[in-house]
Amino acid sequence: MPIKDWIAGERPSAADLNRYFMQQAHAIKSTDTTITSSTTLADDPHLFIPVQAGTDYWVQGMIIYNASSAADLKITFSGPSGATFDWVSDSLGSTIAAGSGAVDIISRSLQGLGSTPSPGGAEQPAGTRVDAVSVPKGLLRVSSSSGTLRFRWAQLASGSPGTIVRAGSLLMIRRLTT
Amino acid sequence: MPYKQFSDDEVLTEADMDRFWIQQHSIIKTSDQSVTNSTVLVPDSELTVPILANTQYWLEVFLIYDAIQAADLKLGWAYPAGMTLDWSHGGLRGGATSTVDLISRTYLDETGFPWIGGPAAAAPSIAVVMGEGVVVSSGTAGNLTLRFAQNALSATPTIMKANSLLILQKLTV
User: Fold this and answer.
1) Is residue B1 in a domain?
2) Are A21 and B21 a contacting pair at CB < 8 A?
3) Is B145 part of a structural domain of the chain?
C-alpha cells in the first residue's frame, strides 16, 4: 500500500518511517553571486546538497537570475560518479527578444547530468534588465557512490556587466520511496 | 493548527501521524512503452498508484516522451469512481516545433485528454511534460493510472520513456 493509514497504538517500525515519510534537504542562497566576462562554469558557492548512494531524489530548484539578453545564463548540475539526472530547466529560451520581459517561450528540453541549458536574459524595455526565474526539476538517481549535487553556472556569452544569481535562490531535494 | 512542535518523550498519536507527517509514493518507469498508429488512450503499464478512499493528494508528473510533430502526444487518466483531479500538464503546446516553445497552463479535470506537442519532425523527438494537480477521492478506493496515445495517427511510435516519474503526496487536514 503506497500510503499508510495509521492506527491508534501502532508502533511505527524503521521500515515504516523510511518508507512512508518524506525526507527533504534544501539550500537557500544567502548572497548574490556575479560572474562577469566568463562562460566557464563555476560551482555556485551556496547551492549544493549531499546525496546518498543507491537513492533516488526528486530535485526542484528556483534560480533567480539577472542577465542581459546578450549574455544570458548557462546552468548545469554536477553529481557523484555513476549518477544520472533527467531534468528540465523550465526557463525562458535564450533566443527571446530583448524587450519582451520574462513572458515568452519556455524550455521543456530533456537534460542530463552535465548538460548546459541556457535560460534567457530578460529585458523590459530593451536595455533594462529584469530578474527572471528558472525552475529546474528532475529525477536524480544516485548509483553506488555518494557525493554532492551541485548547481553550477556561467554566462552563455561573455559580457559585462555580469550575470547575477540572486540571494534567495533555492535548491531542494526530496528522497523518493517506492 | 497547521504545524506542531513535538516535545521529548511525547507519545505520537494516530492523529499526529496522519496529520503532521507527509507521506508520499512515487513510481519510476523502468522501460519504454510505445503506441503506434493509434489515438486510443491506453494505460501506462507502470505509472499507476493506489488511491485511498476519502483522501486528498498533491500529484506531480515528470513524463519523458518521444513523439514526432505529426503524431504528438495525448494524455488522460483512469481513476476510481467519484475521484476528481484538477490539474495542468505544463507541457509543450499542441503544434510546438521546438522543445523550447509555448507551454500550456490550461486547467484540466480528470476527464481531460490534452494534446501535447512533439517538438521535432523526425524521431528522436524528446521532450518532457511537467504537470501538477490535486486529487480528491470519494468513498471508493482504486487505482489512478496515466493513459496515453498519439494525438494523430502515425506509423512512427509515440513513446513514454523510462525514468518518467509520478509522485503522489498525501495532503493532510
Assistant:
1) no
2) yes
3) yes
- CA neighbor of B64 nearest in space, from B155, B151, B148: B148
- Whether residue B14 lies inside any domain: the answer is no
User: How confident is the model over B42-101, as pLDDT tens digits?
Assistant: 999 999 999 999 999 999 999 999 999 999 999 999 999 999 999 999 999 999 999 999
A30 in the Ramachandran plot: left (φ > 0), alpha (ψ -120 to 50) or beta?
alpha
Domain with B128, as residue range(s), is 25-170
CATH label of the domain that carries residue B47: 2.60.120
Tally Cβ neighbours within 10 Å of residue A141. Answer: 19
Whole-angstrom CA distances from A19 to A1, A40, A172, B37, B139 are: 11, 41, 19, 40, 26
The reported pLDDT for the residue numbered A6 is 84
* Interface probe with A: pick from B52, B92, B97, B100, most Cβ of A within 10 Å: B100
Q: Is residue B64, in this structure, part of any structural domain at all?
A: yes
Predicted model pTM? 0.94
Distance from CA of B34 to the nearest CA of A (A): 18
> pLDDT digit string (tens) for B1-45?
567 888 999 988 888 888 888 888 999 999 999 999 999 999 999
Number of domains in chain B: 1
Q: Which pLDDT band holds residue A64 (cuts at 50, 70, 90)?
A: very high
